[in-house]
Design brief:
Layout lengths: L6 E2 L8 H4 L9 E2 L6 H10 L4 H16 L21 E2 L13 H10 L1 H8 L2 E6 L2 E7 L1 H5 L3 E4 H7 L1 H7 L10 H9 L4 E5 L9 E6 L6 E2 L2 E6 L4 E6 L7 E3 L4 E3 L8 E3 L5 E21 L6 E4 L3 E5 L20 H6 L3 E4 L8 E5 L12 H13 E6 L5 E8 L3 H16 L5 E4 L5 E5 L2 H11 L10 H4 L3 H15 E6 L2 E8 L2 H13 L5 E5 L3 E4 L2 E4 L3 E7 L8 E3 L2 E23 L4 E4 L2 E4 L10 E3 L2 E6 L4 E8 L5 E11 L4 E8 L4 E4 L2 E4 L5 E10 L4 E10 L5 E10 L4 E10 L7 E10 L5 E10 L5 E10 L2 H9 L4 H17 L4 H15 L5
Parallel strand pairs: 1-36, 4-8, 7-10, 8-11, 9-34, 10-35, 11-36, 34-37, 35-37, 36-38, 37-39, 37-40, 38-41, 39-42, 40-42, 41-43, 42-44, 43-45, 44-46, 45-47
Antiparallel strand pairs: 2-3, 4-5, 6-7, 12-13, 14-15, 15-16, 15-31, 17-18, 17-19, 19-31, 20-21, 21-23, 22-23, 24-25, 25-29, 26-29, 27-28, 30-31, 32-33
Helix pairs in contact: 2-3, 3-9, 7-8, 11-15, 15-16, 17-18, 18-19
């Protein structure tokens, strides 16, 4: 049976707290008073309508908890105040088997974490726990037909009392330690799984856990039983489209943007996509239509948008007849934009268009070259002549006016000044064309502007030129394709293009020059050219007022504050996408700044004290993976133990990245001949984090084997500690066990400790133990940086290489997530 365990959310570094640091306003159906007493224990049992035997187990646990002192070894736990914790919070009255029937405010939380998407793509069943209660549970019907039981532990107490009485608290009794006793007294939620004899599950089961309330405790109880020869995968955790995303050189559909690519953020800078999320959304979708209507974009209601609320910058003058109350320009320009949920936006609010700040000098483009490229955008095309064997040519087409003739003549002169060959001729109808077969010119136009009216696109090199250089190209483009007209006493400049992406690029270039241009779409229509019926393409109209702001738009630095003209709402059923972006956790949609849409960040501490009990019967296989990423205000104190019977195999994969203090030592009791246990542990301790982890193997029968592999990474004031136990009983002959501990220190201040303990009562046992401690050397960093990596990227590359052999043991989704979390957690270790 393969069990893949827990991932808990809550990274809290400055760069990522926005992503995971939200909390939701929940109207709890029931909440106990703070603190723990026998009355509280009885109240929890009463609310759950539990049988008397479970109440007795709870009361026994409570009495043992009160009698046991706090542990004095390991991490400092003096910050835990048991009297300042809510031990039970019920967010909803009913558990749901349909995602649509989960209460909306709770569903939003887990939607952000991708639960429905993960279930649909990867899991045979899923369960979601919010604070103290499971709010959602689903399992495939074919598993139920095979006799597989997958439910929450509360339901198991009511429906499967025989199994619960037999196994609950037998693997981890309340006498084991103070926190196991606490869990026994106040447990709520968790998973119960029973896999019948010989049943092998090919898809994993998963549960998700979330602490939402401040000063709350979560005390789930998980019990998994694999009968003889059974096999199951269980994942207890959380993993955390069509809009156009600004990538610097272009815009791209969000569904096509890949992890590792660079996107522009709300600061105007470019940063790497660390993680791309996708999940299915059935519900309300918003379409935000700003003054520049072709910049309209769609998003779900909880997605934050950078905004200045109109009611915060109103003028004191008496309102005039206008579509919205007037604003004070001075107040608007002094206001600081903030990220606001999309469903809190109103018509008239100002959303923020951001011009990029990055520019690169290039000797490849002199002024004449840029003028030629500008006219190519307006009037040029590259084509192949099949009759001449596919020879390519570039042609620039002009009208028959005197101005057009002069422009064609100038272009012909510029091309010859660059040393390229071209010819200019006038058609019978009086139109002018400049044509060239020069490969260098053709490649220049093709590589930096594309070909085809709808596919023209400026290259990254052009998009990253300084604004004054870009202005030369745009002026030439406007000369070839633009027009000037008067509107309300203002001189308006207008141009059009059939290329949607080129239109957005031109808008971005103008923004870098301090000009906000209006972008609108004119739909294609039927027309006649020289008597021939044609279908005109859609045209994107780019328009701006010379020397003046566009309407109500105001600019400050590289930001333009653009009013929302209209907000549409409609039902949507399909996939939606989101990114985690390095440093800023934001990106631009058609130029407008939005934030990444996950455990809340509080100053006060929370306590997570779970118990996980596994039973692997004869020839069964259990694999349980924990990737713990709790917020760094959480004490994560978990007891995990497995019993392995004849020829059974139990694997623990224990990844610890989050929490303030983590103490977790999964163990395997090898109870019968041929049993096997493996523990793999990864711990990353950042600033002010204590990761105290390891594992225990108890060989209680002959021919048993085990291994413990521990990898730890420390930085700053972070402390990693390995604690391990290998016990070989007197009757356990022919035992083999191997322990390896590798630690990596990222700087001079970080600390790592190793406390192995061997209790071997047989001379024929084969026990090995290896330990290494290493530091990242300057030579390693220098080598990687000489290959083009930044110091931060070089550091992350070394760390990921260090843990790579263990990450391979995870399913692909979790391997990627683990590496991403470790990369994010170590990114602040440089500079």
């Amino acid at each position: 049976m393969a069990v893949i365990g827990e991932q808990f959310v809550g990274q809290t570094s400055n760069e990522y707290r926005e992503k995971y640091g939200f909390s939701d306003k929940i109207d709890y159906k029931f909440k106990t008073k703070k603190g723990l007493s026998e009355d509280i224990v009885r109240e929890i049992s009463r609310i759950k309508s539990e049988p008397s035997w479970m109440l007795e187990k709870r009361l026994t646990g409570y009495r043992i908890f009160k009698s046991k002192p706090m542990p004095t070894w390991g991490a400092d736990l003096s910050g835990i105040n048991f009297d300042d914790i809510y031990y039970y919070l019920r967010p909803t009255d009913n558990k749901s088997s349909s995602w649509d029937s989960v209460p909306e405010e709770i569903k939003k939380t887990f939607d952000k974490l991708g639960i429905p998407e993960a279930e649909r793509k990867f899991f045979a069943g899923a369960e979601a726990q919010y604070d103290s209660e499971v709010v959602y549970h689903n399992v495939r019907e074919d598993l139920e037909r095979q006799g597989v039981i997958f439910t929450d532990t509360d339901t198991a107490v009511q429906k499967y009392p025989g199994l619960m009485k037999k196994y609950f608290g037998e693997i981890i009794p309340p006498t084991d330690n103070k926190f196991a006793a606490l869990n026994t007294a106040v447990w709520s939620g968790g998973s119960f799984i029973y896999v019948p004899k010989g049943i092998k599950l090919t898809m994993p089961l998963q549960a998700y856990f979330r602490i939402n309330a401040e000063k709350a405790g979560q005390f789930e109880r998980t019990l998994i039983i694999a009968d003889e020869g059974a096999d199951v995968t269980y994942i207890e955790g959380c993993l955390p489209a069509d809009e156009l995303i600004n990538k610097g050189d272009s815009l791209q559909r969000i569904a096509e943007v890949k992890e590792g690519e660079m996107v522009q953020t709300h600061t105007g800078k470019f940063h790497k996509i660390q993680k791309k999320f996708v999940h299915h959304h059935s519900g309300m979708m918003l379409e935000i239509l700003p003054l520049s209507k072709a910049n309209g974009f769609k998003l779900t209601g909880e997605h934050p948008v950078l905004c200045i609320k109109r009611n915060t910058v109103l003028t004191k003058r008496r309102p005039r007849k206008s579509w919205n109350p007037e604003v004070s320009t001075l107040a608007l320009l002094k206001a600081e934009p903030k990220f606001v949920r999309a469903d809190d936006l109103r018509e008239g609010d100002f959303i923020v268009y951001v011009a990029p700040t990055l520019s690169e000098q290039s000797q490849e483009f002199d002024d004449i070259t840029l003028k030629i490229l500008g006219l190519y955008l307006a009037e040029g095309s590259v084509s192949s002549n099949r009759a001449l064997g596919g020879i390519k040519s570039v042609a620039f087409s002009f009208g028959k006016s005197k101005k057009e003739a002069e422009l064609a003549t100038k272009l012909n002169t510029w091309i010859h000044e660059k040393g390229w060959k071209a010819s200019m001729y006038k058609s019978k109808r009086g139109y002018y064309t400049v044509t060239s077969y020069d490969k260098e010119l053709i490649d220049l136009c093709d590589n930096h502007c594309g070909r085809g009216a709808e596919l023209k696109l400026l290259s990254q090199k052009i998009m990253r030129l300084p604004p004054q250089k870009q202005k030369i190209l745009i002026d030439a483009y406007w000369e070839g394709n633009g027009s000037v007209h008067e509107r309300n006493g203002k001189k308006m400049l207008r141009a059009s293009t059939a290329s949607r992406l080129l239109a957005y690029q031109i808008q971005e270039i103008l923004a870098r020059a301090g000009i906000f241009s209006n972008l609108n779409l004119r739909r294609g229509s039927i027309d006649f050219i020289f008597g021939r019926k044609i279908m005109r393409r859609d045209q994107y109209i780019i328009e701006y007022a010379e020397g003046r702001e566009m309407g109500e738009v105001r600019g400050r630095g590289n930001q333009f504050f653009v009013p929302i003209k209209h907000i549409k709402r409609y039902y949507f059923d399909g996939d939606v996408y989101n990114f985690s972006v390095a440093r800023d956790e934001s990106y631009l949609v058609k130029g407008f700044a939005v934030h990444n849409c996950t455990a809340p960040i509080y100053v006060s501490s929370s306590l997570h004290s779970a118990v996980v009990e596994l039973v692997a019967h004869k020839h069964a296989h259990i694999r349980y993976v924990t990737i713990q990423n709790w917020s760094k205000n959480v004490y994560n104190l978990v007891t995990q133990r497995a019993f392995a019977y004849e020829s059974a195999h139990v694997e623990w994969f224990d990844g610890n990245i989050g929490s303030a203090t983590n103490m977790k030592y999964p163990s395997v009791y090898l109870k019968e001949r041929g049993a096997k246990g493996d523990i793999v542990s990864i711990a990353v301790a950042g600033e002010k984090q204590v990761q105290d982890s390891g594992g225990k193997m108890l060989h209680l029968a002959p021919d048993t084997t085990s291994s413990i592999i521990s990898k730890s990474v420390s930085k700053g004031s972070g402390i990693t500690t390995y604690r391990g136990l290998i016990h070989v009983a007197k009757n356990a002959s022919n035992v083999k066990s191997a322990v390896r501990c590798d630690a990596l220190l990222l700087d001079e201040n970080s600390v790592t400790n190793t406390y192995p303990y061997m209790d071997v009562q047989r001379d024929d046992a084969t026990i090995t133990h290896e330990a290494t401690v290493g530091k990242i050397g300057e030579d390693e960093l220098f080598y990687l940086m000489s290959r083009g990596l930044s110091e931060e990227e070089a550091m992350a590359t070394i760390v990921l290489g260090f843990i790579e052999p263990l990450a391979k043991a995870l399913p692909l989704e979790y391997s990627i997530e683990l590496k991403r979390l470790i990369k994010l957690d170590t990114s602040n270790s440089v500079g």
